[in-house]
Amino acid sequence: MTIDVWMQHPTQRFLRSDMLSSLRRWTGKTIPDDEIPIEATVASMDAAGVDFGLLTAWRGPHGQDLVSNAEVAEWISAYPDRLAGLATAYLDQFGTNYPMIAHTHALAGLDGLGLSEDGRHDFLHGNAQRVFRLDTQEAGR
Q1: pLDDT-based confidence at 92, cuts 50/70/90?
Q2: What is the predicted pLDDT for the residue at 115?
Q3: Rounded alpha-carbon distances, angstroms, from residue 28 to 12, 55, 63, 67
Q4: Which of 84, 91, 86, 82 is nearest to 110 (CA)?
């Protein structure tokens, strides 16, 4: 099984971000006028032989949502056997932005996300157990 452990499905906000301006100039590519359907990302996964992907939300350098958690959740619900969420990049500067916050602070803020009990379980370890096919007894060690 091939797993992409850090992927984004691009939104118009993401594609038009200033952080990608040099890439747009370098490639000479234009941004499509319409949102790219999630099916395009799944088709790209198929073409590359990627069986499963962990989608992540993305915040811009000024805290603006370029790819929101709500969008990620929608795409995952459309393809639950192909996609899961990697929420760590989105928790108030946890994971990708600088300065990063401590894990204890991020975990303390977890309740503020309004996740269901199942969502909390998946966030903390359920997604990893499912994606990497870990035995739940082994994962608890």
Answers
A1: very low
A2: 75
A3: 17, 26, 28, 23
A4: 91
Of residues 49, 56, 96, 48, the one with CA closest to residue 76 = 56
Question: Tokens 């452990």 map to which residue?
Answer: 5
- DSSP secondary structure code for residue 34 in this structure: S
pTM of the model: 0.63
Of residues 119, 118, 120, 140, the one with CA closest to residue 129: 140
C-alpha angle 68-99-5 in degrees, rounded to nearest 5: 50
Pairing label, strands 3-7, 52-55: parallel
Examine the pLDDT at 97 and tell me if it is beyond 90: no
Contacts of 10 (CB under 8 A, 6+ apart): 36, 67
d(CA 48, CA 4): 10
pLDDT on residue 99: 52
Q: Which amino acid is at 5?
A: V
Closest of 44, 35, 40 to residue 15, by C-alpha: 35
Beta bridge partners of 34: none
